[in-house]
């Protein structure tokens, strides 16, 4: 839905778009301490959401822009994050054809955008989600108080930078975060090299450490198959937090790695104009003395019912090693076991 010219006293061309996505289905999980879990859940392939975004033409190629987006659970009608609103995105900024885009507010990191938009054939959703093993928890996905700048596109090349203020009383460095992304998209090739750095200190509880994540992601469309690849390095405290604390109720709980590498190899295979098979293999290589590695295999199928609606089915299985505790989740949930099956429907508007 688009509302044009919404302010009578504004002479420049303006518009506001109301948009959203609703996604729900059945999830069946096995292998965890919770036993066999079957449920109706929301946000399996993509988190259900309601958003508003707008632009105002300021002239000379310059526009004012904003976006407000909240996550919802359509299985029970609640917000996906209690006591929040517009927790997914909330920013305002300026966009110039020649000078690039500058935005301020709660925004996605370059790290997560590379995972979800380039690296993962499952788009960070379904049982095969890259988030099951890669470092995508908390501020690695999106961060508040952020200033983000993106250059214009130069023959397929662009650069992005992020700086988020920690805003903790008594310290200018505690909790601060910065990121950098180098992007290339031209023809069948899409590639990104990104870096994310977060100061893990909190006032009164210094950790004397930072979390540091580097990721290279690429995909190439061969027409008969679209190939995906990603390789990441995670170093430092909280650089690769576990999606679940101890889902398997081990006597000794799993420990989040402070030095690990991540690998993904995947594919999308178009069967017809409306059908695609998704598949991936992921490996978490824990380089600490605990050696808590994990491997995941996943396969999925998506059928377009229309341009806005698709039905899907997906399955994934994780093999944990040496007391590792990784779980098969989806876009919205961390999961409760090492195996999961999804079937559902997603509609955007």
Automatic annotation (TrEMBL):
Recorded superkingdom: Bacteria
Primary residence: membrane
Subunit structure, interactors included: Homotrimer.
Keyword annotations: Cell outer membrane, Ion transport, Membrane, Porin, Signal, Transmembrane, Transmembrane beta strand, Transport
Record's subcellular location: Cell outer membrane
Gene3D superfamilies named among the record's database cross-references: Porin
Keyword Lyase: no
Species name: Rugamonas apoptosis
Record GO terms (molecular function): porin activity
UniProt protein name: Porin
GO BP: monoatomic ion transmembrane transport
InterPro entries in alphabetical order: Gram-neg_bact_OMP, Gram_neg_porin_domain, Porin_dom_sf, Porin_Gram-ve, Porin_Neis
Sequence intervals crossing the membrane: none
Cellular component terms (Gene Ontology): cell outer membrane; pore complex
Positions of the Porin domain: 3-322
Membrane topology qualifier: Multi-pass membrane protein
Xref: Pfam families: Porin_4 (PF13609)
